[in-house]
Amino acid sequence: FLFYLSGTVVWAYFASCLNGTSNTFGKNASIFSKVYFPRITVPISIVLAGLFQFLIQFTIFFGFYLYFVWNGADIRPNYLVLTLPLLVLQMAILGLGFGALISSLTAKYRDLTFAMTFFVQIWMYLTPIVYPFSQVPEKYRVIYMFNPMTLVVESFRKAFLGTGFVNLQMITVSIVLTMVVFILGLLMFSKTEKSFIDTV
Predict the structure, then answer these.
(1) Do residues 7 and 128 touch, judged by C-beta distance below 8 A?
(2) For residue 45, which of 34, 59, 31 has the smallest C-alpha distance?
(3) What does residue 194 show for φ and ψ, rounded to 5 degrees?
(4) CB–CB of 177/146 below 8 Å?
(5) Computed over its alpha carbons, how large is the radius of gyration of the chain?
(6) Is the pTM higher than 0.90?
(7) DSSP H helical segments within 35-140, as ranges?
(8) Alpha-carbon distance 40 to 34, whole Å?
(9) 34: which DSSP letter?
(10) What are 130-188's pLDDT values in tens digits?
């Protein structure tokens, strides 16, 4: 139960950040066309607001966590619990980066908005949410390492449950990809906001 709940809590925050920011220009076109302010503040506010949802879900998870610990479940938390703020920060940056990137694309290609739900679901199944990374065939593990969310989910489980696969290679690839997506997303967002009103 805790295994599935841990994956769901982590993924829910990332998915809410991604879905919330992915149509920034379309949803706020009327405001953007009348008042000027830094457009990036809108997706940032969505990501920050999502923290409250994450806090609620994490509290529920932690409540069940304490219950299972009290009843003698084989759970081995470790010092990695201290990295929780860093994991949340990575999810926020990744969600904001991808959201800004997709939002920039949907400003011109409106049909991409309808594909977002499908895209997020596919991404979830390509992340070890409902199954452990250890069950992924060896030949496919390299592919999973190029999914930045794999590190976040596995690190969260490693920290609180004592189970999970984390190594230096996975950490490096995940952080580098997160920063690349974030920078690329901000650059495209900045470029799109200058001319989006002609296409939205």
Answers:
(1) yes
(2) 31
(3) -80, -20
(4) yes
(5) 18
(6) no
(7) 41-70, 84-106, 112-125
(8) 16
(9) T
(10) 888 888 888 888 888 899 999 999 999 999 998 888 889 999 999 999 999 999 988 98
